[in-house]
Amino acid sequence: MKAHDGMYIDGAWRPASGPDVIEVVNPADEQVIGRVPAGTALDVDTAVRAARAALPAWAATPPAERAARLTALRDILDARRDEIAETVTAELGSPLKFSQAVHAAVPIAVAGSYAELAATYAFEEKVGNSTVYHEPIGVVGAITPWNYPLHQVVAKVAPALAAGCTVVLKPAEDTPLVAQLFAEAVHEAGVPAGVFNLVTGLGPVAGQALAEHPHVDLVSFTGSTAVGRQIGAVAGAAVKKVALELGGKSANVILPSADLAKAVNVGVANVMSNSGQTCSAWTRMLVHRDQYDEAVELAAAAAAKYGERIGPVVSAKQQARVRGYIEKGVAEGARLVAGGPEAPRERGHFVSPTVFADVTPEMTIAQEEIFGPVLTVLRYEDEADALRIANGTVYGLAGAVWAGDEAEAVAFARRMDTGQVDINGGRFNPLAPFGGYKQSGVGRELGAHGLAEYLQTKSLQF
């Protein structure tokens, strides 16, 4: 798609307040594929004021009509799914098949789920002698990351619109083109002017202005824990609600009774998908000492198959970050069994699929989020040791447990300090709540729990 040279504010594409632009680079060949405005605090203020003005009418719109607009949005996104996939591939570097299967298909499904929820959700309920109303929280400032650039937009905007909120979206500067495509779809779906607004720009400028704006009632942010802390501090000073989906260092726990080969192969695939740029990736594989050597051999062989199959990471900055972590892993004594820090291609921001063995829990690569195609394999002595290691980071976003007996896996998963656990390779569920414990965030996305984040509660007693 051709990049717009303006902001989508109050139902139209409008010129930015300043001359600065952001170049969008294809990470596979390092070519500039578009330019978008670098929004300022003035642009954010204009967008927030439009959202505030549109709020009373949209909040009063019957849920069935809000559902109809979301259904139309889903249908338009579905009709443009090939363009969505091609756009994400161009700006993120994801292989086209993955873009089609995940980056396009998942947000379409999520949009559809909120169309259904908007029509069926109990916005009013009786509790004893009270009537409880679930009302829109107000103007939402949505700040989204680059790794799943449309999914994260839809996971915030769709429930906000279903709830009756209005929205100002600031997408990641690395991947703004699919957000512009989304704005086109919102417009075509007949969403009233001012209900959805798009401001492209840099995080420290446009993102900060949005988080700090006094007329924003909720900030929904997905990104790093460090930035999440800053947004939480800003929101706390204003007694403003936040929804934060932050970092992860998820454990893939393979119990001795599991199908080892399947658990290892699925685990490696999980880490390598989207070039490792997934906050919920199972980047720590925990294996019993008696099966450790076999698991390492299996993981190295599986990772080698991804050499030509994964795309680049999003930018030169991200490539340098990931390679730096690999070098640190070697320096701290971990053993490389696949990949390494050397760039596998002369052009493009590629990182070799990498597997580390002999990793101990205190190593940097076992504690910090790398956000690249890097797997660490850790040895445990017994189940208690496995649980200690699994829970031994500041994060608690996702994870996996494998066992021959499902009940055994569930019992272990229930003791993990994490928000979502896949049992024996359980499938992704777009209706299940997604979010983390500890420093992985506050609040939940997806399904009814995700809709509830955008509502506030009022009770009337009779």
Mean pLDDT: 97
Shape: globular
Name the CATH superfamily classification of the largest domain.
Aldehyde Dehydrogenase, Chain A, domain 1
The helix tally amounts to: 15
Termini gap: 56 Å
Which class of secondary structure composition applies to the elements? alpha/beta
State the CATH architecture of the largest domain: 3-Layer(aba) Sandwich
- What percent of residues are in strands? 15-25%
**Main beta-sheet strand count, sense and barrel state:** 7 strands, mixed
Tally of structural domains: 2
Number of strands: 22
Tell me the Rg in angstroms. Answer: 22 Å
Domain Aldehyde dehydrogenase: 13-459
InterPro entries: Ald_DH/histidinol_DH, Ald_DH_C, Ald_DH_CS_GLU, Ald_DH_N, Aldehyde_DH_dom
Active site: 245
Keywords: Oxidoreductase
Which features characterize this protein?
Aldehyde Dehydrogenase, Chain A, domain 1; 2 domains; oxidoreductase activity, acting on the aldehyde or oxo group of donors, NAD or NADP as acceptor; Aldehyde Dehydrogenase, Chain A, domain 2; 462 residues; Ald_DH_CS_GLU; oxidoreductase; seven-stranded mixed sheet
